[in-house]
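BUG-637 | component: ligand-complex export | severity: low

The export step for GLP jobs runs without errors, but we want the raw record kept on the ticket for reference. Input record follows.
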Amino acid sequence: MTHDPTEFEQRERIKSFIHGSADEACRLIADEIRGLIRTNDAAGRKTVLGLATGSTPVRLYQQLIRMHREEGLSFRNVITFNLDEYQGLSREHPESYWRFMHDQLFRHIDLPAEAINLPDGTLARGEIFAACAAYEAKIKALGGIDLQVLGIGRTGHIGFNEPGSGRESRTRLVTLDSLTRRDAARDFRGELNVPRYAITMGVGTIRDARRVRLLAWGAAKAGVVAQAVEAAPSDALPAGLLQGHDDVVFHLDAAAASELTRARLPWLVGPVTWTPAIARRAVVWLSLHLQKPILKLVDEEYGENGMADLLTEQGPAYEVNIRIFNQVQHTITGWPGGKPTADDSHRPERATPFPKRVLVLSPEPSDDTLAMGGTLRRLVKQGHAVTVAYLTSGNLAVPDEDAEMAADLMLELSQDDRGIGAGKADFARSVREQILSRGAFAADSDEVRRLKGLLRRGEARAALRVLGLPAERLRFLDLPFYEKGKYRQFRIGPADVTAVSALLDEVQPHQIFVTGQAADPSSLSAVCFGLLRQALASPRAESWLRDCRIWLFAGTDRPWEPAEVDMAVPLSPHELSEKISAMHHHKSQRGQAAALAHGTNELWQQAERQNRRLAELYDHLGLANYEAIEAFQRWNA
Ligand code: GLP
């Protein structure tokens, strides 16, 4: 795959392609793999593929399966080596990579069983070292890996080569990073169940592959991708150790590429067309970069930072400063549903209709409060008709300990000598027994999932009560794709779309708050966003959609910078503390923070920090100094 770097890619040390979508990227990589197999077949050679697990490559595997079925692509002459495997899981364990690969690819193609190689997670400690050496030897004996497929973890790991893995590392037993274990916690129903060790090919093993293709989707990966591509290579970020490889390509979607300089700060690397959006981004960046309020920026500073032509076109600095300052100022509003009797020509939301019908779509109970607890409270106080709809029950994210506690409580109630709660004893006993007897690994039964879902309902009700929203304004959709599915492998069906459409028809909202537009397509929030899009495409939505604005909230894994914000809702110290107490009600979600940065261990600490941080940034820009800010982006359907 050849490609001449443009000036915009001058900071990139790894060739990176930005695709329109993950599917588009996967079609291209599948084409490449098909080409490789056909060329080798014609020459009578085997093709050796290195494969990866995780949600990222699933779409690629679906393309390969399609090519096998529809085009007769054969894998008879292919040999595969997988990157890694958890240590201590049997092959049949639902989360073993052996099982994953069989479910996602191997069962659906004609790859011979003896051509499949994965590290063996069932070996005793004493046998692992020799088995790793044998794995390496086998790869070598077969002539090395022709093409290695890779995902990237949020620590920047490849395979299970966590930070600290050296460039020369080989196949070995490794200890998993706490962020990696946390990322896997939902697959294993709680971090406690996630294995502590894994066997992985080393960075050196991966670098030996003749071609390396790393795939990444969604905003949560944007930071590590940019570091791997642009920062000097270091053991602290194993994916960056791919720099200098003869034939490595990163295939990204726009969200995963969004932190690359060419996407984030293009004026630093080449000429740009100064659209209002880019001008705003550049000036906000300049102000934060120089730690100077927008109104104090001077012409020389524009010139020294790749923004001279902005001044030529639209300058001097004084003019541009005022314009951008006003734009950013106009994103701030204490009236997220519009201010009824005020001039709204410079406000993010229209004054009328008032009150508005507001629909908040929360993928799981808790996403709403974390992202927009303060805004919700204001919407309610300001008299809007707010409905919060929880699209899924969220029961997969409830640790066993919480369900056990609830079952104990029920049991105790049922034994109450005044007869309170009698009749529920069987249910409670059965849930407790199932949790105890099914071992750490079997899937939850419907009963256990039901109880876990109910727990999250209770938490959501308690949280929104703090924010002033009564229980009857809450809707629990328990969409079937989630009830039947598992994380990273959700499949939506017609019943899911129908349920979302019915809700929209019923509410006919003037405002929708939703998330997931820039998320990894297999993530829960992206699946939920996709459902909304499908529902909006229905002709029935036409009548009210014209009069509806859609506001996006960001996930905690990649909060927005000021220049990305269209509506900034400030929170007073009192509002922030109410939001914090609301968030505390999501007890089953403790310890689920998406990143461990700055000692924020809990989701609510992370949300609080992000809201405070955004307020500080607005302050640095020279705007009002608020306690905290929640942020939204306008989305046009
Ligand atoms: C695990 C795997 C990696 C994978 C990573 C990201 O750590 N060992 O190979 O790249 O998860 O997973 P996902 O693609 O689901 O984001």
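Assignee comment: Attached the raw record above. The mean pLDDT is 93.
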